[in-house]
Structures are given as structure tokens and as C-alpha cells.
Design a protein that fits this description.
The protein has 14 helices and no strands. Helix 12 runs parallel beside helix 14. It is globular. It has one domain. The chain is an all-alpha fold. This is 1,4-dihydroxy-2-naphthoate octaprenyltransferase. It catalyses: an all-trans-polyprenyl diphosphate + 1,4-dihydroxy-2-naphthoate + H(+) = a 2-demethylmenaquinol + CO2 + diphosphate.
């Protein structure tokens, strides 16, 4: 209780609105979607065991038993807790590290310069009455907590609290399944979240952030969920983990494309800085197109084999079609948003695309 009380006292340096903003709620779909996909794959695997294998004990699992719905649901929620709390912890940790490193100071200064430039362009020289009405969001960047005056210790405490919650969820899942090796995976995820922009040599400053986003929001989160719940993986889950990883890669690339000028000033060598704005824009559009093609190919496969699929029902078929159509439409419009430089809107659209992708995969895998 004393430790929690101390954390609460420290976090009082932040207002509730700042705490919510620092969690980056608009991006949390990227943590939810891979768990959703992994859980759908696990349910599909478990469906085939329900009538042929004995039921798993609560404190043991694996590929040679069938879990009860209650056990599956519990593990799914624990995996969701791990993903979401770790993502929030990473967001606060990044804000803390960039803030004390001075990277966000460049962004804050650029925001002020952009605001003055925008007002001058819109109302004419010398007219500044509208300056204070412009929201930071209109400048296509989220609020940076440390650079905005929030005590760094409060931001770090928020990161540590969320990391502790993620570890608690992960430990509970390990105890239930008996997969103690998952502790190593969890530790790797925590370290990856911290050293993205933290530590003496952050890998996010050397162009490895996009790779990490693909790996940890793709195969690690998706297949980790499937293994935790079902004790095994299959090829649909592997393919889906790659596709959702591409979505995460696209989101971080759009974020870095938005920050390309200030990242260059701060010495942060992201892919956007290395490739340039034009090439990065093209690469993002290509990645989104690959996601759309993958979903379309999966839809064609399910459609061709639909008459022979034993589990095809109107409900799952509707989920598959709705998810596929929404992925294609969202991806199409997102490409134009990226090309027009509407980066905040594009990241929001990609977050929605991740959820539509999860819905489509759920429909696909449940009829296979």
C-alpha cells in the first residue's frame, strides 16, 4: 500500500486529461487487434479439440487438451491486459525519455513556430488574435507531457505503474498455463518498450523502431496470445500476425513521417529521416496496399472454398465480409490521407483498419 500510495502522490503532478493524453488512447487499437486475432486463432484451434481431447486443468495447458470457455476467456483477458498496459507503459516511457533527452523540446518549439506561421498566413501579418484558439492537435501532433511542463518523475511513475500491471497480468497467465518460458518473452517486451527511446543507446534513434513495431505488435503479440490460449499455432495465425505487424509498422512510419523535421534536428535517425518524406510516403502506401491485398486474397480463398467449409454460418460469413470490405475501404482512403499529409487522421484510420482486420480474420478463421 505504501508503494502504491507513493506512486499516487507522484502521479498527482499530472492532471487526468494529461494522463489520458499520455496513454495515447487513439493508438490502443494496435494493442487490442493482435490479441483479438490471436484469440480468434486459439478459439478456432480449440474448437477442433473439443470433442476429441480431455479438458485442460486450470493450472496446466498445452496442445493435447481442450480448454473450457471460462479458462479461454480468462487467458484472453489477461493477454489483452498485458498488451494494452505494456503499450501504455511504452507510451509514457517514450514521452519521459524524449522529454529529458530534449527531443520533444524541438517538437514543442516547432509547434509554436508552426502556429505563428499558420496564423500569419491565415489572417495576415500583425494579426494574432486567433493564435490562442488553435489547438495543438490541429498541428498534427499529440501533446508531449514532459515538454509541456509535466514533472518527468510523474510521467516515469505512470510508465512504471502500467508496466507493473502488465507484468501482473502476464504472471497470472503463466501460472495458469505453466508456460514459464513466457516470462522471458514478457521481459523482452518490457525491455523493448524502454530502450526504444530510453537508455544511452536507444534503438529508435537508429532506425530500428519500425522493425520492433512489426515484431512486437505482429508475431509476438498475436502468436503469443494463440500459444497462451491454445498451446499451439497454425498457418492462418502466422499469416495474420504478419499482416497486423505491417499495420503497426505503417502507423509508426506515419508518426515518424509527421515528425521528420524535428527528428532530424534532434538526431533521431528514423526510416523517415533516412529515406526522406517522398520515399517514406510511397513506402507507407505500399505497405497499406499489401495489407489490403492480403485480406482480399484471404477473402477469395474463403469464398472459393466456402461450399466445402463445415463451419460456415451466416454470422461468421457476415463478419468476414464486413471486415474485409471495411479494411479495403479504410485502406484506400488512408492512402490518400498519407499522400495529403493528414498524418493524425491517417494514424486514426490505421488504428480502425487494425480492428477491421481483426474482425475479418475472426470471420475467416471461424469458417475454415
Amino acid at each position: 500500500m505504501g508503494a502504491l500510495g507513493g506512486a499516487g502522490e507522484t502521479m498527482r503532478g499530472m492532471q487526468l486529461s494529461q494522463l489520458i493524453s499520455g496513454a495515447r488512447p487513439r493508438t490502443l487499437a494496435l494493442g487490442v487487434a493482435p490479441v483479438w486475432i490471436g484469440a480468434a486463432g486459439a478459439w478456432a484451434l480449440m474448437r477442433g479439440r473439443a470433442h476429441t481431447l480431455p479438458q485442460c486443468a486450470w493450472a496446466a495447458g498445452g496442445a493435447h487438451c481442450a480448454s473450457s470457455p471460462a479458462r479461454m476467456t480468462t487467458l484472453m483477458l489477461l493477454c489483452l491486459g498485458v498488451a494494452v498496459f505494456l503499450q501504455i507503459a511504452a507510451n509514457f516511457a517514450n514521452d519521459y525519455s524524449d522529454g529529458i533527452r530534449g527531443t520533444d523540446a524541438h517538437r514543442a518549439a516547432a509547434a509554436v513556430a508552426n502556429r505563428v506561421e499558420y496564423v500569419t498566413r491565415a489572417t495576415g501579418p500583425g494579426v494574432v488574435e486567433r493564435e490562442e484558439t488553435l489547438d495543438y492537435e490541429e498541428l498534427h501532433a499529440p501533446t508531449r507531457l514532459v515538454a509541456s511542463g509535466v514533472p518527468p518523475r510523474a510521467v516515469l511513475t505512470a510508465a512504471l505503474v502500467n508496466a507493473a500491471l502488465a507484468c501482473a497480468c502476464g504472471l497470472a497467465a503463466v501460472v495458469i498455463t505453466g508456460y514459464w518460458w513466457l516470462l522471458a518473452v514478457g521481459a523482452l517486451c518490457v525491455l523493448a518498450g524502454w530502450f526504444y527511446v530510453g537508455g544511452a543507446h536507444p534503438y529508435g534513434y537508429r532506425g530500428w523502431g519500425e522493425v520492433a513495431a512489426f515484431v512486437f505488435f505482429g508475431p509476438v503479440a498475436t502468436l503469443g496470445t494463440t500459444v497462451t490460449m491454445a498451446g499451439a499455432v497454425d498457418w492462418p495465425a502466422v499469416c495474420a500476425s504478419v499482416v497486423i505487424g505491417l499495420v503497426a509498422l505503417a502507423v509508426l512510419s506515419v508518426n515518424n513521417l509527421r515528425d521528420i523535421r524535428t527528428d532530424t534536428q534532434a538526431g533521431k535517425r528514423t526510416w523517415a529521416v533516412r529515406l526522406g518524406a517522398r520515399a517514406t510516403t510511397v513506402c507507407i502506401i505500399v505497405v497499406i496496399a499489401l495489407v489490403m491485398l492480403a485480406v482480399l486474397a484471404a477473402g477469395v480463398y474463403v469464398g472459393v472454398h466456402g461450399s466445402t467449409l463445415a463451419h460456415l454460418t451466416a454470422g461468421w460469413g457476415f463478419c468476414a465480409v464486413l471486415g474485409m470490405v471495411c479494411v479495403l475501404l479504410t485502406g484506400y482512403f488512408t492512402c490518400f490521407e498519407v499522400a495529403r499529409g493528414e498524418y493524425m487522421r491517417a494514424m486514426w484510420s490505421l488504428s480502425l483498419l487494425a480492428l477491421w482486420l481483426a474482425l475479418a480474420f475472426t470471420g475467416f478463421v471461424m469458417v475454415l
